[in-house]
Amino acid sequence: MKKHIPNLITCMNVTSGTVAIYAAFHGHLYLAAWLVILAMVFDFFDGFAARLLHVKSEMGKELDSLADMVSFGVMPSVMAFFLIRDLGYSGGGLFTVNSWQGAFMYVPFLVPAFSAYRLAKFNLDVRQTHSFIGLPTPSNALFWVMLVFTRYYQEEFFTAMWGKPWLLALFALVLAILLISEIPMFSLKLTSFSWNGNALLYCFLGAVIIGFVVWGVKALSCMIPVYILISCYDFKRVWNWRFWGILVVLFLLLNWAAAFIVFPAYLIVLIVKLTARADQ
C-alpha cells in the first residue's frame, strides 16, 4: 500500500494543475495561481514521501514528469497568455489600436513544447542530481504565479514594471529558451545546514524574505529573475561578461524598475564572494 502513496500525491499535483487551467479559462486567474502553488506543494511532498518510505520507482519518476508537464509546463503558458491578453485591451476591443500586437499573446504557447523537452531531458541527464542545468519548470511557473499575485495586490507597480505586452512575451520566450539551456542553475534544496555549499541559497532566500517585508508582493515578481541572474554569475572567473551583459539588457528593457532585480542580485553575489574570501 505504501508504495502507492507518492504516486497518489503526484496525481494530486496533476489534478491541481488541471483545475488551475479550468479556473484560468473561466476568468479566475488569481485562484488558478494559488492552485499552481498547491501543485508545487504536492510536487515537493511526492519526492519527500518516496524517500521517506523508500519506495522510489521508475514509474514514479515518469509520472512526476507528466504531472509537472501539466502544472508547470502548460499552466504557465496559460497564465502568461491571459496576462498579455488582458494588457492588450484598448477601447473595449482586443488590440484594437495595433492589431499586430495580438501576436504577443500567442508567444507563451511555445512554453509547453520547451517544458516537455526539458522534462524528458531531465530524466536522462545524470548531471542534475545536486543542481540544475537550465531553468527548472517549477521556477518558470513560479515567475508567472508571482506576476498574477502582483497584478492582483499591487496593480500600479505591475503596470509600471511589467505592463507591456511585448515585454511579457519576450520574458516568456527567454524563459522558454532557458528551460533547455546549458546554463547551470543552483538548487533550491538544502543538502546540509552548513554555510559552505549553501551560501548562495541562504543569501537568495534571505533576499526574498527581506524584499517581501520591505516591498511586499511586488518583490516576489522579481524573485525568479534574481535567481536566474545570480545563477549566471561564475564565481571562478574574474570577469563575468554574461552577468554584466544581462544587467545592461535589464536596464534597457525595464529602466529604473530593473533595480528591483539588479540590486538584490549584485548584493547576493557580493556577500557570497566576501564570505568565501573570509573562509580562505
The biggest sheet amounts to: 2 strands, antiparallel
What kind of oligomer do you see?
single chain
- Principal-axis shape: globular
Give the number of helices: 12
Q: Which H/E pattern describes the elements?
A: HHHEEHEHHHEHHHHH
Amino-to-carboxy terminus distance: 51 Å
Strand content: under 5%
Approximate helicity band: 55-70%
Strand order of the largest sheet: 1-2
Count of folded domains:
1
In angstroms, what is the radius of gyration?
19 Å
Averaged pLDDT: 86
Tell me the number of strands.
Answer: 4
Q: How does this model look, in words?
A:
The chain has 280 residues and is mainly alpha-helical. It is built from twelve helices and four strands. The protein is globular and about 55 Å long. The chain has one domain (75-279). 70% of the residues lie in helices and 3% in strands. It has helices at 5-25, 29-53, 58-87, 111-124, 137-153, 155-162, 165-179, 199-215, 217-220, 223-231, 241-254, 259-279, and strands spanning 89-90, 93-94, 132-133, 184-185. Mean pLDDT is 86; it is low at 90-97. The protein has a two-stranded antiparallel sheet. A two-stranded antiparallel sheet has the order 3-4.
Concise overview:
The protein is mainly α and 280 residues long.
Note the topology.
Blueprint: H1 5-25, H2 29-53, H3 58-87, E1 89-90, E2 93-94, H4 111-124, E3 132-133, H5 137-153, H6 155-162, H7 165-179, E4 184-185, H8 199-215, H9 217-220, H10 223-231, H11 241-254, H12 259-279
Antiparallel strand pairs: 1-2, 3-4
Helix pairs in contact: 1-2, 1-3, 2-3, 2-5, 3-4, 3-5, 3-7, 4-7, 5-6, 8-12, 10-12
